[in-house]
Amino acid sequence: MPHNSPGFLRINSSDANVDLRLISIEEGEDLRQRVLRPGQPDWRFPFLPQAEFFHMGAFHGQQLISVVSLLEEEVVGDSTNGAAAWRLRGMATVPEMQNRGIGGLLLEHGVAEVINRYGSLVWCYGRTSADQFYQSHGFQPHGEIFDIEGAGLHALYIRPLGNGLQRKTRSA
Pfam families recorded for this chain (predicted)? Predict the structure, then answer.
């Protein structure tokens, strides 16, 4: 994608020069499999959205180093008072680039896009091993911890966006 295309953003940090942009689901498949399900080469990201969605990637040079997907989806089993909920899914950063703030930058730009699309909260089933990361980005754990076979312990995390927007009907 050219640098002046919609969805492109260049971030310069002390650790890395990173380009953030919208990507296709196919662009992130290999990275997700290697990071989220190592040792399971046949695993594919189970993504079958029923509503609006987008995928974002962070690139260091030409290499995809971090991915995230967000889709409009209600929180399962939780009353959010009609909030326009978006689910965070499949977030992964290559191990050699973790703990440099790249995943956090990508997450925050994804959240900004959700706000642009009138979302009022973001939620996910996050690995408990990443609890500090989620809480440092405004997510709070809810309910009981549970195990996802092959992926480990998870919790429901919710981040209200505080923009006060409720679900809007899109005009034709």
Answer: Acetyltransf_7 (PF13508)
